[in-house]
Write a structure and sequence with these properties.
There is one protein chain. This protein has 30 helices and 35 strands. It is α/β, with parallel strands linked by helices. Strands 25, 26, 27, 28, 29, 30, 31, 32, 33, 34 and 35 form an 11-stranded mixed β-sheet that branches. It has a 7-stranded mixed β-sheet with strand order 6-5-17-16-15-7-8, with helices on one face. A 4-stranded antiparallel β-sheet has the order 1-2-3-4. The longest helix has 17 residues. It is globular, with a radius of gyration of 27 Å. The termini are far apart. About 2% of the residues have low confidence. The protein binds iron/sulfur cluster.
Length: 971
């Protein structure tokens, strides 16, 4: 029975109208998008029916990674964007958005946005700027980089991305430049979860089919926040309406927990223990999918490696696993995790009923991003998918790569052969992404320097831990020669840049992106709305900044023009990658780039376009998204044909895996390969499963790896199997009597973005409070008054915040959301006044804004005032009624990179006390000397490369901008 039929049968027929494809018309039909008429909403309120004509132009949202569809309503009379609504043609968001989608309009019209390229006029951080032309910025930055390249200083050029936009464009640019210069925000976000997933299946993310699940198990507040949460939230609720049980593990009563059947507020960092206790019960109860495990798990390796006393037959697997996890009983889980043993049994029974194949799970950020060993959270959670046979099934969880599509860009350059130890240091051979949080620490201790450093929609001083160490590095011109901030908004970091270059928001730029939102693949097309509108009017626009507000540009064109400036005569071999295909010797245009990409890289798109009499580019400009045809269920079972094996010259190894000789699985032959490594995967094509060659998973065995030979071979044999690692904040290590508590600083409010919230008055009006969540019993014990000021002391400093007594948090844990604590140093300029207060900043030997050099050698940030009304071109800035700018708690967190995943372990072991005399709300104090000390303590936990074959990192591990195989060999 379909969901619609079920709802109708249940007597809720009206509700079915809300389902996708219902007859209720929520959206203008596409054939009217170029000339849509509706009544003016303000006049309508006054009884006047004024018709307004619009051109509706699709784009995609840029306010989180989900890339939901938006329709920009361009008023034909004013020529301005009036509003954004959902794009019903988008396969993931299906016309719906969260609050942040429509709030794009605030970003477009923000009166305080940066409209023109700026160059620093005084000292870094002094706040003096001059407006320059784009041509000057390109000339100065391009010639600087060109000089570095000519002198062989490729490692001194770095691109550091916060919010990515396009799935393949920057890979292409960096390969063309021939450098390992990509840096990301990932190890403050998801490195932990990625390593746990990759250990099982090669792919680093889950893709839950929540709508069809019987049990939805979330270790996160995924219904309200997190990756792809709007597309997933729709489907989680669909699943719930069909009767699925929703289980939410979170120490905090999130909105997600409040919508769940079970809220399990376990002690932070014990989630893996809980999952293994459930796994053991599934095995004991016999509620597991034996056939799936027999067929697709490397159980034979597990038995051989761990139980030589047992015969290596599948019949011994459950015994061996039950023995292995003997201590993970419900009763022990009650002690370790702090939840009732009966609940653990009850949940295991629910999950057992989802066999076969109907358990969808999700972990992202949350525990995996909070704890040392947090990567085992996703690994043990996915273990439940494996045991229940819920991998690649309807209602199960697939590898992300099966539901995401990354097109191959045109003129794709050969991979670079460089390795940058500032981002991929030898201490972290298994990290999933760059050790980005350690960049300033590495610079300060002399591991390298940067000539030109791009931050791109990235605000590390505010977003990262240990922001003052970032500030120290970014203001030292010997460490960072030139800092270029590519940003749509003023930020704490942009203030310390040399060039501030305005980049577009969702309706001002091109990007193609695709995400694993459901079982199926799609691509979304972000486009500069005013450029498209101008072209609809018959105008010619050469560069997007000609149509965008002010001279706001887009990165795609910027990188093309900059590459021409870096290599004006083509002698560096760079320019050729940015030349037109049709007219060599002239710059590649974005239309040409995407025409080629859409025509040649997207299965089914040319036919769909042809059916409408359009080119693929015209189709994407018209619809904004495309659902790639095909069934993505059980991709691992696909048969690899003999002709495919022959074409790739794959040969069978002893384990029945078919590999292309000289690729990742055969790293002993690396010297012979000269780097002809594929970008993705490990060079294997399939695996023999009972006489048939099947596609499998991109692991060395092409099976799901219960036992990970990679962990064993790379120095962590104790973690060859899914296990629980006690967190650095494990509750048994805390002295609660002395006021020690666990600080949870990672949860997000669903209505806030990161840095870009400050550009949106609507979002600021919705969410503008920053309390410290504290259980009443803790408040009593610690002597904290209701709404009283609290001093929270970390290893490197302290912050002062206001307490909120709530039973929505586990006793022993206190919590404050991120996304708040914004500041600027100047009354007129800087992070917009919708969210930012004005602060004084004092450090050893320096002062910024109204701050003087500190007298105690520490860094101090003190609020002068919170959010206030302010002067701007927007009359609403005089109507601001809220005042809380929040507390910039991240400044007081030292870096705590997990020794395996490299993930910053966000949770803090803190001491909580009532504020001291003289403490004021928002006060921050930090000793960066201690920060360096803590950095070294965590560094000492690592087990550095080289690994087998003298490599820096396993060749089969994915990584951004993957270099040639030869670069993996340590000198
Ligand atoms: S979930 Fe919200 S913020 Fe994220 S892309 Fe969708 S509409 Fe935008």
């Amino acid at each position: 029975m379909s969901l619609r039929e079920e709802i109708t049968a249940a007597g809720m027929g009206e509700l079915s109208k809300l389902l996708p494809g219902s007859s209720l018309t929520n959206y203008p039909p596409v054939e009217k998008w170029q000339d849509w008429v509706e009544l003016d909403s303000k006049d309508w309120a006054h009884g006047k029916k004024t018709k307004r004509r619009f051109s509706l132009i699709p784009t995609t949202c840029f306010n989180c990674e989900a890339c939901c569809g938006l329709l920009a309503y361009v008023d034909k009379e004013t020529g301005e964007i009036q509003k954004f609504e959902g794009n019903p043609h988008h396969p993931a968001s299906r016309g719906r958005n969260c609050a942040k989608g429509p709030a794009t309009i605030n970003q477009v019209h923000d009166a305080d946005r940066i409209l023109f390229p700026l160059k620093r006029a005084g000292k870094r951080g002094e706040g003096k700027w001059e407006r320059i032309e784009w041509s000057q910025a390109l000339e100065e930055i391009g010639s600087r980089i060109g000089k570095a390249f000519k002198e062989g200083r490729h490692k001194e050029v770095m691109y550091h991305v916060g919010r990515p936009g396009d799935d393949s464009y920057m890979e292409r640019v960096l390969h063309a430049w021939g450098l390992d210069g990509h840096n990301s925000h990932t190890n403050i976000c998801s490195s932990g979860a990625r390593v746990g997933y990759a250990a099982w299946m090669g792919f680093d993310r889950p893709s839950g089919d929540h709508a069809n699940a019987k049990v939805i198990f979330l270790i996160s507040s995924h219904l309200e926040a997190g990756h792809y949460f709007n597309p997933h939230a729709q489907r989680i609720i669909e699943g719930k309406m069909r009767g699925a049980k929703v289980i939410c593990v979170d120490p905090r009563l999130s909105n997600t927990a409040s919508m769940s059947d079970y809220w399990l507020p376990v002690w932070p960092g014990t989630e893996a223990f809980l999952c293994l206790a459930i796994a053991r019960l599934l095995l004991q109860n016999g509620t597991w999918d034996r056939e799936f495990v027999r067929r697709w798990v490397n159980w034979d390796v597990f038995l051989r490696e761990t139980r030589p006393d047992l015969e290596c037959t599948f019949e011994n697997v459950d015994k061996a696993l039950i023995d292995l996890y003997a201590e993970y009983t419900p009763e022990k889980a009650e002690h370790i995790c702090g939840i009732d043993a009966r609940k653990v049994r009850e949940i295991a029974e629910h999950i057992g009923r989802a066999v076969p194949g109907r358990l969808s799970t999700h972990n992202w950020r949350a525990s995996a991003a909070g704890n040392e060993g947090g990567w085992q959270t996703s690994r043990t959670l996915f273990f439940l998918n494996v045991l229940t046979g819920s991998v690649g099934t309807e209602g199960g969880t697939s590898p992300n790569g099966w539901n995401k599509f990354i097109p191959v860009p045109p003129k794709n350059p050969h991979p670079h052969g460089d390795w940058n130890e500032l981002t991929w240091p030898k201490e972290y051979p298994l990290t999933h992404h760059e050790l980005s949080i350690l960049l300033p620490h590495f610079l300060k201790e002399g591991r390298g320097k940067l000539d030109t450093y791009f931050t791109r929609v990235y605000n590390p001083i505010w977003t990262n831990p240990d922001g003052f160490t970032w500030l120290e590095a970014l203001t030292n011109e010997d460490l960072v020669g030139c800092h270029v901030a590519l940003t749509p908004i003023w930020s704490e970091t942009a203030w310390f840049a040399d060039y501030v270059l305005p980049m577009g928001v969702a309706s001002e730029r091109h990007d193609v992106a695709s995400y694993e939102t459901h079982m199926g693949r799609w691509i979304g097309f972000r486009q500069p709305v005013m450029k498209v509108y101008a072209e609809q009017q018959g105008k010619t626009i050469n560069r997007t900044y000609e149509a965008n507000p002010g001279e706001v540009w887009e990165e795609h064109e910027f990188w093309i023009d900059l590459s021409w400036k870096i290599d004006p005569d083509g002698s560096l071999g760079i320019r050729e990658h940015f030349e037109s295909i049709a007219k060599p010797g002239t710059p590649l245009s974005i239309d040409e780039y995407y025409s080629h990409l859409f025509e040649n890289s997207i299965p089914g798109l040319p036919d769909a376009a042809k059916a409408e009499g359009l080119t693929p580019l015209q189709y994407m400009r018209k619809h904004g998204a495309f659902a790639i045809p095909g069934n993505q269920e059980k991709v691992h079972e696909r048969v690899v044909t003999p002709s495919e094996l022959e074409a790739a010259k794959a040969v069978r190894d002893a384990e029945g895996v078919y590999r292309v000789p000289g690729t990742a699985g055969m790293h002993d032959t690396i010297d012979d390969v000269h780097g002809h490594m594929p970008f993705i995967g490990d060079g294997s094509l399939g695996v023999d499963i009972e006489g048939e060659i099947r596609f499998g998973f991109p692991t060395p065995s092409r099976k799901l790896e219960l036992f990970s030979p990679t962990m064993r071979d790379w120095g962590w044999p104790e973690y060859s199997l899914p296990t629980w690692i006690p967190s650095h904040v494990h509750w048994e290590k805390l002295d609660f009597e002395r006021g020690e508590r666990i600080l949870l600083p990672t949860f997000r409010l669903p209505t806030l973005i990161h840095t870009r919230s400050a550009q949106s008055k609507w979002l600021a009006e919705l969410s503008h409070a920053h309390p410290l969540w504290m259980h009443p019993s803790d408040a009593e014990k610690l002597g904290i008054e209701p709404n009283g000021l609290v001093r929270v002391t970390t290893q490197t400093g302290y912050f002062v915040i206001r307490a909120w007594r709530t039973e929505g948090i586990r006793p022993g844990v206190v919590a404050a959301s991120h996304h708040m604590g914004r500041w600027r140093l100047d009354e007129q300029t800087g992070t917009p006044g919708w969210t930012a207060g004005v602060a004084a900043l004092s450090g050893p030997g320096v002062g910024y804004g109204a701050g003087d050099a500190s007298s105690d050698g520490q860094w101090h940030l003190n609020q002068i005032h919170g959010v206030q009304t302010f002067e701007s071109g927007d009359p609403d800035s005089q109507r601001v009624w809220w005042s809380d700018a929040g507390v910039h708690q991240n400044l007081t967190f030292p870096v705590q990179p997990d020794p395996i995943s490299g993930m910053h372990c966000w949770l803090q072991h803190v001491t909580v006390s009532a504020a001291q005399p003289g403490d004021r709300y928002g006060d921050i104090a930090v000793d960066t000397g201690k920060s360096m000390q803590v950095f070294h303590e965590w560094l000492a936990k690592t087990r550095p490369a080289p690994g087998p074959g003298g490599l820096r990192r396993p060749l089969h591990f994915a990584r951004p901008v993957k270099p040639l195989a030869t670069a993996y060999k340590m000198p």
